[in-house]
User: Fold these one by one.
Assistant:
Number 1:
Amino acid sequence: MYARARAVLPGGNSRTAVYNSPYPIYAAAGQGCRVVDLDGTSRLDFLGNSTTLVHGHAHPEIVAAISEAAARGTCFGLPTEAEVLFAEALCARSDAYERARFTSSGTEAVMMAVQAARAHTGRPKIAKCAGSYHGAYDSVAVNNDGSGSLISHSHTAGMPQAVLDNTIIIPFNDPEGATEVLRAHAGELACALIDPVPWRSGLVPATAEYIAALRAVCDETGVLLVSDEVGSFRAGFHGAIDAIGGVADLTVLGKVIGGGMPIGAVVGKAEVMAVFDPSEGKPKLPHSGSYNANPVSMSAGVASLRLLTEAEWKRIGGLGEQLRDTMRKTIADNGLDWEVNGVESLFRVVTGTVPDSSVNSARLGHLLFQELLLNGVLIGDSGLGCVSTPMGQQEVDTYAEAFDAAVGAVVEQARA
Ligand code: PMP
């Protein structure tokens, strides 16, 4: 399949994150917490489409919601009841979510949140944390490589200098450092964009002190605080920033809220969200899109939120904690300096070194990914993983055994 793909797709690929050397395995089907590849091999899916599938694959209630919506028509040049139902369900999750606006991806939702902040404040620049990933929009794709560098840079050639000049980098989890940079640029800044649990820079949560410092400097300077929780929404039942003890002006959501269908949302203060309001004449920020609030995605989203009760959210968070603990034990037993980070149902293994071996961290991460595949478990090759609601103790135990075997095999290969 990969050979065929190479003939028609660049490098056989449509999504950088799913490429794996020497070639990716192809998904044929998924059911619950298992995914079956084209060779017929079934594995436990702890990747869940980069933490999207909180209810696993093909959950019957979500499939029914999608099927019923699709049978009524997949898209219209008119608004639908489904978007009202989904907005009601989302706004019920947090007092900070006063209004909602929908897109088809997290990337688009981040872009609209940034543009909303610009339209509301009339200021051009944005600030973001060193290393954090926020999707493909130019303005936020600056310094998204996980590094701590505070100099605006891009890994893609030809990025306009104006984009780099208009994205200011603040240090993560450094309240004084971030406050200083934000104050220095305050008059030109529309927003400070943060991910409260940024996966690319290691899935270590922001501290309460850091969030409080950002909130204070934003209040002082009129800069909007935008919380990108496309991935980190799992960190709190009322969202990630709420779990840490803060409130954002705008929050960006995606992934789990859509039940596996393409989704993105900007939610937040009515006063700021008013930039999208067309009812009083041309809005400050016109925002169209042929698939905005697509009724199939909206219907899957309603089902996904209904199924993610507080009890279920807590249960999978507990399983996540168990997983992190058992992985840390395996790592310690093998005398390794690797870290396991994460909160609630999210985890990330950050490979370090293997004593008496010169194999680097990235290569070790790749070997771990491959060894887990051979042991019947899928995680991301960045070490990212998550627990989903179809899982229970049995899956956590199976994962722990596979992780143990995989780490042993990686250490052996690294020393060979
Ligand atoms: N922001 C964050 C924090 C993300 O993790 C992602 C996706 N991994 C995005 C934005 C982009 O979302 P999408 O892939 O739906 O475009």
Number 2:
Amino acid sequence: MQTDRLRIAIQKKGRLAKECQELLKRCGVKISFSGERLVVHAENMPIDLLLVRDDDIPGLIMDGVVDLGVIGENELEEVRLERIALNEPSEYTQLRRLDFGGCRLSVAIDKDQTYNGPEDLNGKRIATSYPNILKDYLDKKGVSFSPCMLNGSVEVAPRAGLADAICDLVSTGATLEANGLKEAEVIFRSKAVLIQRKGEFDAEKTELIERLLTRIQGVIQAKE
Ligand code: PRT
Ligand code: ZN
């Protein structure tokens, strides 16, 4: 069910939410974010914002439910690989890499353990919220592992005796350090990206997307 208004999915709350809202405001999109609304209408442009969990954004784009979305590449790639495995639609177009949300997905091990390379992970149990990216990476290195799927508290899994290692997002490294872990291998580098659904767009939407992209370019350049 498409509408005349451009639908953009962004994270409701969390690490990408503020910067997404800020970016849209700087692009001249007038929005008042208040309350617990799922859909917010821009006041001065035919744009509706959908405020959702970040986990839902890749699927909303790949199923063609929304036109644009802002999402961390880590989440996007995890969902893409999962959908490929399930034979579900997994296509999207990347319009632009953004200048926030930077982090890396890394394998971390006990800080006192030695690490010589991915082969050291052979046969190990690795706790992660990103089993598909991890498997894709280790398959290519010829390494097999047992996953331990956790959607939170991944960093405590080794201490709790649930896993030998973890694969989690890192930005400063403080969380790893606080849990007696060290980064062994970076497997994916991520930033927030603006993505678009596949399929046709009418002339008005196409023009609006181009205008937004030009403005985003300007906003990002002004900060550099
Ligand atoms: O509620 P919702 O599902 O929408 O949000 P969420 O809790 O799933 O995600 P959120 O808001 O935590 O993160 C959204 C996105 O921000 C991620 O998918 C990444 O693309 C990006 N991002 C950037 C990060 C980090 N940096 C980050 N440091 N996401 C998570 N972390 C966590 C990490 O998992 C670890 O627990 O922060 C901790 C590590 O930080 P350091 O600085 O101690 O290394
Ligand atoms: Zn999430």
